[in-house]
Amino acid sequence: MKRFALFFALFAGLLLLIDHGGAYVLDRVYARTFVGQKGGILNTYFARPAPPALVLMGNSRASLDVNPDSLPVEAFSLAHPGTSQIFQSGLLSLLAERRQLPRTILLHIDLDEYIHPSFPADIRNLRHYYGQAPLVTQYSKELSRWEPLKHGLALYRHNGRLFGLAKNQYLQRQGAAPSQGFEPYAPTAQDSINTLYSTHYLAKERYQLNRAHLRYLHDFVALCRQHRVRLICFTTPYYQVPPHAPQSAALVDSLLRREHVPYLNYAATAAPAALTAMRFWRDATHLNSRGIPHYSQLLARELKPLLAVQAPEPAGGQPSAYLALAQR
Amino acid sequence: MLFNSVEFLVFFVVVTVAYWALPHRFRWMLLLAASCGFYMAFIPIYLLILLFTIGIDYVAGIQIEQAQGRRRKQFLVLSLVANLGVLAVFKYYNFFTDNVNALLDSLHITHHALPYLSIILPIGLSFHTFQAMSYTIEVYRGNFRAERHLGLYALYVMFYPQLVAGPIERPQNVLPQFHEVKRFDFTQTLIGLQRMLWGIFKKVVVGDVMAEYVNSVYNHYEVHSSWSLLLATYAFAVQIYCDFSGYSDIALGSAQVMGFRLMENFRMPYFAKSVTEFWRRWHISLSTWLRDYLYISLGGSRLGKWLTYRNLMLTMLLGGLWHGASWNFVIWGFLNGLYLSGEKLLGVRVEATERLPWWSKLLRIGLTFHLICLTWVFFRAESFEQATFIVRHIVEQVPGTSLAWEPGTAGPLLLGLILLVLVEYGYLRGRNTEAIMPHRTWTRPLAFSLALTLLIICFGVSTGEQFIYFQF
Predict the structure, then answer these.
(1) Which site among A1, A7, A167 would you substitute to test the B interface, given the most B Cβ atoms closer than 10 Å to its Cβ?
(2) Nearest to A150 among B6, B184, B224 (CB)
(3) Whole-model pTM?
(4) pLDDT one-digit tens code per residue, B329-353
(5) How is domain A57-145+181-327 classified at the CATH fold level?
(6) Nearest to B291 by CA among B170, B158, B162, B432
């Protein structure tokens, strides 16, 4: 038994040593990475001397469909493919904590999210910032009561990111320059097939509205109001409007109207005239680099009058219950 | 309480420390209480089902041993009916109802539709039911003396490492071990812990990462290209192996830390050179159970060629149904039965394939893997239509969307696969557990454990994915 206790002590000691040493090295590498997802774009954003006038947030449909350079004011894209509203709310909480909030946030609402079960595990994409942003910490703790214990191992904040980090570092060394967060898809021969098949799939999908997601959007709106950030929401077009889109949009709109948040919904009707041709699409929900300039221009045109209006003063709104909880 | 959760880690540490701290006479109580707690972490009330069958089988075992003539058989039948009855109600009733109602519907008889039961399947029901049945059958056959200690018998059924997903143990192997006085053994503890780490690594670094790809393709199978579907099917073959053998490694390892040796459940099945050999390497505790208690009871291969084929088909069909109440599992069993009968017809002998040249072995390994992959399509698909759609689309080479493997996903996966093959190849060569778990000096086990732990922290999927075989 004594031998085992000695072995275990040695194992635990070495593990802690390697864990902390490894995490120290990886943290430094991470902090020096300025290209690609998995932190690179976020580091570029934080390295700016001042926040831009507008920040674009959302999932792949925001990051791939909108070129920030086309927008009427200086813009930066913090949209991250494969993320949902819980991630956006956590990220906003981090920006607020670092005092790097822009004057305006353009938030993409993915209507598909509101017909699927919640993805609370999505917050793990921000696990690097656990303990640094109230909503990231709070959502992570809600995920599992053991999350604080897991974070006791410093390497855990790099879980699932090492190869992405290595790729970003490689690209950086190859000369890839930091961008304003925009990484479009080039058209490929597969695009029309992807568009046809995914349109067919979306049209056939069985769905049930999920109101649980509204909670994270509510937190997002409340945080914007608390920090006097102007919030504009939008939804990019589909190649063909799927059956669930009107109902999901109505659900989201019910919250946004109440909070007086402007909502530009391009998914309410068929794709705008300029985008009806299949050659503009990568699949049913994403434009390729042929379609992006058309859509970005359209969005910029409609944003102009909204950005010209003075941002509304907070209407005496209280932070959400969750937010209040996180701040305690 | 999943094996890949922090809850289990805490539970395991507390139980193991308490186990070694207690004198031998109290240890069974601790293990039984821990096993009850482990089972009740899922649905507490279902413990009553277990206690019901334990009570019946305990009495039946003693009565079978003491009674003479027909009464012995009557008690065996009582035990089998009780166990199979529980399985029938909880696992097969709704499947039966579904099919009867569909039949009535097709005959336009709608007012006699059978009602459905609104119940959740108790976790690991098929595993502990089969384990309980093996006890009464072995006592009936005179191969094992009935256990007089109710607590130890209950522990035989409920021993937490193998309670919910096997290995399906035999009384001869486990029950005598509960009577033995166990002494703490440094080497065995080390090997057990390393084996647990290895199981967790297989599950969360390889299996669960594969699952993400498989789920994205199989959940939207209609839009994917043939290559995507084929790749997802290969990925599922790896996923199910890592998931289930990973579970078995954790089960065997956690038992070994307390001084118990459970039976091996896997021996590199995808290195099999025939389907017959595959079934000697895959889920060994189930395949030997089916062989010993079903195939041989039906007459095995003693009754001539055609009856052998019939027995093989029946055994595998029931093996398919054991997995789940769905026609897909029946087809999965049918295909396996067909392969085994075909190999019997062609005279394929496992021992003879060992002497073949390397290229012939390689070809056979490839062919066997693909035959098994075909069965996995039916295993993974949610309906017969989905499975046939996927098989048809793979064969017809149709276009569709393709999921790219990002470096963030492909990198750890490749790393995990290489490590998996290297370590398990060592296992294959050594032909015993200790061969893959270095233990002779401190340096190697320390390095092996540290490497695995760091890989799990850095690359493991931490969302606590369910084990596939828990549903059975």
Answers:
(1) A7
(2) B6
(3) 0.83
(4) 999 999 999 999 999 988 888 888 8
(5) Rossmann fold (3.40.50)
(6) B170
